[in-house]
Every structure is written in structure tokens, then in C-alpha cells.
Amino acid sequence: MSEKLSVVIPCYNEQDAIPIFYEEIIKVAIDLKELEWEFVFVNDGSKDNTLAIMKKLRDKDERVHFISFSRNFGKEAAIYAGLKKAIGDYVLLMDVDLQDPPFLIAQMYHAITSEGYDCVATRRVTREGEPFIRSIFAKCFYYLINNISKTEFVDGARDFRMMKRQMVNAILELTEYNRFSKGIFSWVGFHVKWLEYVNVQRVAGETKWSFWKLLIYSFEGIVAFSTTPLALASIFGLIFCFISLLLIILIVIRTLIWGDPTTGWPSLVCIFCLIGGVQMFCTGILGQYLAKTYLETKKRPIFIVKEEA
Ligand code: UDP
Ligand code: MG
Fold first, then answer.
1. Measured in angstroms, how far is the CA atom of residue 49 from the centroid of ligand 1?
2. Whose CA is nearest to atom 12 of ligand 1?
3. At a CB cut-off of 8 Å and minimum separation 6, what does 20 contact?
4. Model's pTM, two decimal places?
5. Engineering a disulfide at 124: which of 18, 128, 156, 222 sits with its beta carbon 3.0 to 4.6 angstroms away?
6. What is the distance in A from the centroid of ligand 2 to the CA of 277?
């Protein structure tokens, strides 16, 4: 019996993109006919006709399956749900907007079956068509997280990847509520091949990621994969202890030599503000970790299914 490939496709308000995507993926499926194909569409609480379109596809092609959430749970939850539903020996994760070029699928399959890789992942080598400021922030994020986290983060890495069943099972074992897939994929390890490609624009619809959403998402990544920020309070504390020790010595000497004129309150105010600020900042960081821990301890489900087929 031939091996099975499951394609997992998270969709949120993608009524225009799904039919185009389906046309394209079917072409690849015809070329790679040694594989048995399965398409797992995840409807992440769309407000448009996404679900109706999925059902239509399901009626005409029984290789199509879908899961529909009770509300929007986010792409991370959609990925988890899709991976859980997929039964293939290989699983391919793909966006529906064709920003993940289908022509790479054959290469991915070849690298896994003939070159002995467990996973073939992709990264964009350019960020063309993206606002300049967004690229700068992305660069800073990758620089920062790679310095403070033991998990490796590849700049420009996409979620577009093909994995062997063993790796998919490993990912499914990570049942954390705050999911940051880029980190999870890297954390589980395995032998990964990277394919590079030039950024492609969306075929239809629009991106779901505003600048702010991305910024918050990057903070979540840092909290999920590094505990270094928690050590900042200790570092600042040490630095301030050292500085104040020096200042005490300085002031004692100055008083002994020149007496004690009561000057210097503006500098005192500045120092209070500085230390107050640093303390607030450190408490804020603690709060972030506490909040995430709080959410994890609730053990809420990652997604809720309303309908599936
Ligand atoms: N997506 C999702 N849930 C969300 C946001 C996005 O399932 O809450 C899906 C979306 O339908 C698409 C993929 O995730 O298939 C990538 O989203 P998008 O193209 O908006 O992101 P970008 O490519 O701009 O990073
Ligand atoms: Mg996209």
C-alpha cells in the first residue's frame, strides 16, 4: 500500500484563497501520485464563507477533511488541531494563501525519502513587499531570541514544512497552551533540511498580522522559550549595589574634605526615578511569566471543535 501524505491547512477568513489553493495543490497531487493524499483544512472560526467552501470541497473530493472551531483560536491552535487530525506517514503544513510555493513539495518529499531527513523546512531569504520597519523589528527579534534562548530560531523561517510521523508525534506531545510553533519545531530536534525561497505575495485576501499583533507574538515567543529576562532583575540589582557602594565611598571622602553643603537634590530625584523605573520594568517581566504560568495551570483546551468531517 502506498504511503500517505496529509496536508494541514489553517484557514481564517480565506473564502477567496481556498479554491485557488485547491486547484494548485491538486496539480501537485497528480504529479506525486505514488502518495496517497489527504487534505486537512482547519477553519479557525472564520466569519466569512470559509466553512461552506470547505464543505463543498469535501462533497466533491473525499480526500478532503475539515475541522471547524467554535471561534477564532489563532493559527497556533489551528496547526495543533490539524496535526492531531492528520493520519499520514508524512505531514505537510501549509498556508492557504499560496505564499508557501507548492512547487517545493516534490523537493521536500524527495529530501525526506531519499536523503534521510526527518523534516524539510523552508525560509524566506527576502522580505520583499514587507514594510521596512517590520523587517528591522524581525531582525532584532531573531538576534535577541537567539542570544537568550537555547532553542535555535532561524531568521525568515516559515511554518511551511514536511515532517515524518515520528516528528509530528513528538510535536503533539508538547501540549502547552501558549504555543509558539517556530520554537516548538526547533525544540523537538530531528534532522532538518532547510530550503530557501524568495518571498511571494498572497493570492487573495489579506494578511491577518498587524504590526502590533506581530510584536506581541514575538514577546510571547521570548517568554515561551527563554527565562533569561527573569534574571534581569538580579543583574540590575547587582549593578545598582555596586554603583551605590562607589557613591557612598565618594560621598564620605567628599564630606571629610569639603564639609557637607546640602546640594544635589535634583540628582537624587533622577536616581530615584531611574531605580523606580528599573524596578517596575523587572516586576513587569515577572508579571509576564506569572501570567503565562497562570494560563498554563488552568489547563484549558487549546481549541474547541464545533464540526468536523
Ligand atoms: N490563520 C489562522 N488563524 C488566524 C490567523 C491566520 O488559521 O488567526 C491562517 C491564515 O488563514 C493563513 C495562515 O494562517 O492560511 C497565515 O496567515 P497570514 O497569511 O495572514 O500570515 P502571513 O503570511 O502574513 O504571515
Ligand atoms: Mg500569508
1. 16
2. 95
3. 98, 203, 204
4. 0.84
5. 156
6. 39
State in Å: Cα 246 to ligand 1 middle: 54
Give start and end residues of each alpha helix (H) in the chain: 17-31, 50-60, 75-85, 104-114, 132-148, 165-173, 181-187, 211-225, 228-258, 265-298
Domain boundaries, the chain: 4-226, 228-298
Our answer on whether the CB atom of 97 is closer than 6 Å to any ligand 1 atom is yes
Q: pLDDT of 111-146, one tens digit each?
A: 999 998 999 999 988 777 778 888 888 889 999 999
CA pair distance 118, 103, nearest whole angstrom: 20
Q: How far is the CA of 95 from the centre of ligand 2 (A)?
A: 6
Q: Among the residues of 159-210, which ranges form H helices?
A: 165-173, 181-187
Q: For the chain, which residues score pLDDT lower than 70? A: 260-262
* CATH annotation of 4-226: 3.90.550.10
203-214 pLDDT, tens per residue? 877 888 888 888
**Cell output for 52:** 461552506
Query: CB of 72 closer than 6 A to ligand 1?
Result: yes
Point out the ligand 1 atom lying closest to the alpha carbon of residue 95: 15
